[in-house]
Amino acid sequence: MKRAAAKHLIERYYHQLTEGCGNESCSNSWCASSAGFSRMDNNAAAVKALELYKGNAKLCDPHPSKKGTASAYLESGAHGNMKMNHKDVNSVRDNFKDVTYLTEEKVYEILEICAEKEDYSPLIRVIGRVFSSAEGLVQSFRRSKPHTKEELKSLQGKDEDKDEDEKEAAACSATAMEEEDSPTSSSSSSRLGEGSSGENDVQKLAPDEVSVDIEAVRRVYERLLSNEKIEAAFLNALVYLSPNVECDLTYHNVYSRDPNYLNLFVIVMENSNLHSPEYLEIALPQFCKAMSKLPLAAQAKLARLWSRYSAEQMRRMVETFQQLITYKVISNEFNSRNLVNDDDAVVAATKCLKIVYYANVLGGDLDVEHNEEEDEEPIPESSELTLQELLGEERRNKKGPRVDPLETEQGIRANDCRRPLIPFEEFVNEPLNEVLEMDKDYTFFKVETENKFSFMTCPFILNAVTKNLGLYYDNRIRMYSERRITVLYSLVQGQQLNPYLRLKVRRDHIIDDALVRLEMIAMENPADLKKQLYVEFEGEQGVDEGGVSKEFFQLVVEEIFNPDIGMFTYDERTKLFWFNPSSFENEGQYTLIGIVLGLAIYNNCILDVHFPMVVYRKLMGKKGTFRDLADANPVLFQSLKELLEYEGSVEDDMMITFQISQTDLFGNPLMYDLRENGDKIPVTNENRKEFVAQYSDYMLNKSVEKQFKAFRRGFHMVTNESPLKYLFRPEEIELLICGSRNLDFLALEETTEYDGGYNRDSRIIKEFWETLHSFGEEQKRLFLQFTTGTDRAPVGGLGKLKMIIAKNGPDTDRLPTSHTCFNVLLLPEYSSKEKLRERLLKAITYAKGFGML
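The line above is the sequence of Ubiquitin-protein ligase E3A; the predicted structure tokens follow.
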């Protein structure tokens, strides 16, 4: 029942108890006109009216002979069944001036009157007044709660001590039930008396609850937004409201004094027209600026509240902020002089989008329990630390990468979310990524000043290409810093030090040479791993400007992941590698492999590594669980899934226990008890979930614990000071290490540049692309290997690869050559397409080694 109707009924019960219905022969025992009725005072009548309403007691109709207060009230109150004359409407319209906040019933009441007279100006004025007032909006659309027995007793006890007139008693009885959680104010306190206060309401609300009736707000918007004039009232009110709210939050600390202030943002965000063009110019930017001023606790509460919304409602809010960001980006010309970071509307909308992002994380499928243990031994600091401090180069982030404050406030991490409510990709804004000056943004990220905003603090809005560029700047600046420190250190020490991480290796002993050298560096001075890598193949003249390093990494990976070595096992079905739990190699070898992976990221090299996604999740701090078996070991995953879904008796039909078996490298069975005396504990329908969880934990975590910890430790030796964890999700880490598997050579053709006399319309260039597009998948990969040093596409695809084709003389029998460091193909101007194809295939098939041209 609607609250206005409830109030109306309670007042009728009250008048029935105090004045009666006017029928002298009335048989209703709870009517004052009844012969056997015992008179009661006004306070007792008010409490009794509440009880009669709750018990749905009989209610008398007013007798025609009854004159006075009750009949006058009933005649004026029965507006639903009687037509109002013009004078009545004018008086009601005048009364609307006293409306300082709105309820769903009040809106419908005014709407009904306006519809009857076909004049919506009174409603428009009320909406304009309430929705432009922070105080009015905060009080509006409150949730009603039924009284507890204790509250009724308290109300009765207080009423017995008062001697109010009948009007005050009737109002108290009706509105005490209607608006229990209304804030203390001059208008509401006269209705509620001492029965409730804002402070009591705050104590009663759960951490993720607000006192606003969200469903009522949605119904009101649905009714009103179809009317263009009324919609304009919402728009204009928001323009007046937002600056005042921003001022309240910035200077008056209003949220700490009244947490119900959050109601204002909840109500406004329910407006489904916020993303329409009319709002994008002024109203929405100002409102976003106000919302971005919310304190951290308020933002966290909003995120928890919105996390309970449906995917459709979440998507509407995302689209609202994304629409504003896109509109501002395309309507302005942002460049290195006019930075998008300086646009208040874009920055504010991004900060608001962050709240929705964490709501999306909280509302998704969370796994907050299965976290990897931190490394027991801290990663060694550089021996140059003292000198760095003397030179003002003290390291940042010694305790690891930064963590978002809102993430800390929520007590969760974005990586805890296995599946968000809506895909993370919907939070990426491509137009923003296109105009973002990443070198400037990275500077703001590192300086961490309040005056300059960095979009790297909101990595969800950036695509993998942009984040990779930010990581590239971070790595390069760290390399230059290490180089500068080394030079200064050599001046102080008086001895020559190498500013690079120099590796000299033999092709036929690449693992021995590389891993021994890296092991010495890791033991003596791990900070050297953060220097720029410089690889030299013994007996070859190639100068490493990037291309030699690419081939070095590829050769190392091929050797390390050779199943014959026994460090990793290879699954023919999934084409994936996994740590060998029975490997004879020591932990140091796995540490060195982790270093190689970290160095590849640090030096912007792509590796042909094939790990299941759970490896990247574990690198980001999450343990493997049953669902990770789906790609790591799909056969085992399917078997365990069938066990969980089996409808018969597991114990009788399957006869399995908490002891499992594996085979080592030589095919010998190895038994492992998931629980103590596991061979004596049968798996039943009741404990099968525990069995599956422990089996998965053993396969993905416990069985390879030593190997993986060593591997992770090596990886963190290189990346521990990097914003890698802060910027990237596990699936993006895989993209970062392995590159894109999608080879789009049409995109490569679009972005390729030409030099030495060639252009896009040259005969040889047209024949070259026709030839390349006719190659098979393996031949295309060989071409990429020949030209760029790797057969994988970079983050973002081949369209992000800046390849240059340069003229290398007239027609000749010489083969094409390349500068893999700079992705340059040197192509002679062959006389025919057939000769071009033959020469190119021979070059890419038999290419190995480096020389000087």
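Note on the example: The first helix runs from residue 3 to 18. Residues 21 and 62 are 5 Å apart (CA to CA).
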